[in-house]
Design brief:
Layout: H1 3-11, H2 13-28, H3 38-54, E1 62-64, E2 69-71, H4 73-92, H5 100-115, H6 122-139, H7 144-172, H8 177-186, H9 191-208, H10 218-224, H11 227-252, H12 274-291, H13 299-316, H14 323-354, H15 370-384, H16 390-399, H17 410-432, H18 449-464, H19 467-475
Antiparallel strand pairs: 1-2
């Protein structure tokens, strides 16, 4: 095996683990009998994917497949975070009772998720999104009405994004991110067409990251599907597209023709005001996600609105246009993944132990499963940025970035919307720990709370010692060609 082939094989080991597991599952369950080891194979594939992702920590940065994929520190960090979320979904939100067909579809979609981390080609970017979405559509096909809505709107915004990529290709004649950046930096281009292409591409990105006002149907989808599917498309898919969006911004829009650069800062194409576009959509997402919570009662819809708010907040880190901003973004995604996993874990236990699916069902349940309900409130508070939580440290780090602190009205908007979120948490906490319970305790058994304790430990650790996480994120914040 020559060195180039070995590098390609080694870099794609996490994806190969997931794809191989999907193939094995498909073969074992092709007959009439369902193989009893299906879930174990599914869980082993996701665990191997995380192990292989961790093993790439010191992989030498390089371009693969003629620049179509970037194997760098950034893709390593993204794979570790996404593989961890995938393993959590496999271990907690699935079980031996899950249909093998559903497990196969999840593995295929997860393979596309990991592909997104290193994509550096506009058309492979589009292809990877479809690899993620098509299996997901099949996963929730039983909920026919929401699937139709999501399929139609998803197809429309996929087409919009593809048209933007086509315009970008027409302007530059290139498909790889770095080649496009060189063309935009040194060749004359039509600024109007370039801006139109970027707007169309970002419109598709905003839809798949559940950003308001582009995506307004995700809560309805969440309300009709199970928790596994909710976590799949609100957290895992959103995080994958967020990682790819950051790579697109910092490579394609990087101005290579300007050498007057402060260390750590990056010069961008002056013709494209991408920061204003992100600021507008981010503020809409943060405000809508937090304010709508006040009149939402379905717990799965509440979770989706929290994710909308959090993804809008994560986009803010990119506005600084610096490598420190990228490090803050990666740190934010780790906290986002842990908080989201903690909330969804608590929702699953609450639903199974108490049949609670709405906020009114939570009344007086604080006396039952105290660890679960205290953890639930803590993860909500961390997502809201309450002081002495990981989310609060994250907000301090975000708004101290150069470029962000110059936008005077952005912190007040974030603070006001966070106060609304905190008020919602206060009302929910008062309901949970009230004296009377309206739901009969239907406890089905003790859950594997060690997973919850791991999530709590990380969140509390980051609230006290955030420096080690930032140091790791700084290591992961280097793109190929961006130093």
């Amino acid at each position: 095996m020559n060195p180039e082939t070995f590098n390609i094989f080694f870099y794609f080991l996490p994806e190969i683990a997931l794809a191989a597991s999907a193939i094995i599952l498909n073969i074992l369950n092709s007959g009439e009998k369902v193989n009893r080891y299906s879930y174990q194979i599914f869980l082993s594939g996701t665990a191997l994917s995380l192990i292989f992702s961790l093993s790439q920590a010191y992989f030498f940065p390089q371009q693969l497949f003629s620049g179509a994929f970037s194997a760098d520190h950034y893709s390593y960090g993204a794979k570790v975070i996404l593989s961890s979320a995938i393993l959590f979904s496999a271990a907690v939100l699935n079980s031996s009772k899950t249909s093998p067909n559903k497990l196969v579809l999840q593995l295929v979609s997860f393979t596309g998720v990991l592909m997104m981390t290193g994509v550096s080609n506009i058309f492979i970017f589009f292809f990877a999104v479809q690899v993620i979405l098509i299996p997901f559509y099949l996963l929730i096909h039983n909920f026919i009405k929401p699937v139709k809505k999501y399929y139609v709107t998803g197809s429309i915004f996929s087409g919009v994004m593809l048209y933007g990529f086509t315009l970008l290709y027409g302007l530059t004649g290139k498909t790889n991110f770095t080649d496009i950046a060189y063309s935009l930096s040194f060749d004359p281009v039509n600024s109007l067409v370039l801006n139109l292409a970027i707007v169309l591409i970002f419109t598709g990105i905003f839809f798949f990251t559940l950003s308001v006002p582009v995506n307004i149907i995700s809560p309805a989808i969440a309300g009709k599907t199970d928790l596994s599917a909710v976590f799949h498309f609100t957290v895992i898919i959103s995080a994958a597209v967020l990682f790819s969006a950051a790579r697109f911004i910092f490579t394609v829009l990087h101005d290579l023709n300007n050498f007057l650069m402060i260390p750590g800062e990056i010069n961008f194409q002056p013709e494209v005001n991408w920061k204003l576009l992100i600021i507008i959509v981010s503020c809409c997402s943060v405000i809508a996600g937090n304010f709508v919570l006040l009149w939402t009662y379905d717990l799965k819809k509440i979770f989706s609105f929290i994710i909308i708010s959090q993804t809008g907040f994560l986009f803010i880190a990119l506005i600084s246009g610096t490598l420190n901003g990228v490090a803050a973004f990666i740190t934010g995604l780790t906290v986002f993944a842990v908080n989201s996993a903690g909330i969804i874990y608590c929702l699953k236990v609450i639903a199974e132990n108490h049949n609670a699916v709405k906020t009114s069902d939570l009344k007086g349940l604080g006396k039952h499963d105290k660890l679960i309900f205290i953890s639930f409130v803590y993860f909500l508070a961390s997502s809201a940025g309450f002081p002495l939580t990981a989310g609060f440290n994250l907000r301090l780090m975000f708004f101290s970035q150069p470029g962000i602190n110059e936008i005077s009205w952005l912190p007040p908007v974030s603070i006001i919307s966070s106060l609304v979120f905190i008020y919602f948490i206060y009302k929910l906490t008062a309901l949970i720990f009230s004296s009377a319970s309206t739901v009969r305790d239907n406890k089905k058994g003790t859950y594997r709370h060690f997973i919850l304790l791991i999530l709590l430990f990380y969140s509390i650790f980051v609230s006290i010692f955030i420096s080690p996480v930032i140091d790791w994120a700084k290591y992961c914040s280097n793109f190929i060609g961006i130093q």
